[in-house]
Amino acid sequence: MAQSLRHSYHHLTNPFDPDTDEDGLTDLEEINVTNPLEPDTDKDGLTDGDEVLTYKTDPQLQDTDKDGLFDGDEIQAII
Length: 79
Fold this sequence. Notes:
The protein is mainly alpha-helical. About 40% of the residues lie in helices and about 0% in strands.
């Protein structure tokens, strides 16, 4: 718990909620990779959790495959 509180204080996350931004990734999974306070770090229309766990896109890049379309737009076109 002490390590969790230290991480929470340093990153301004909620120490009583393992997923402060409610994106499907725990704060500890996001620290140093994505923003644990922002559910969609790259602002492409997909949550970080969906990008990592479902679509296998990069939550740090709006256009993972570099084809000129945001990842969220591509997923919406497929669905």
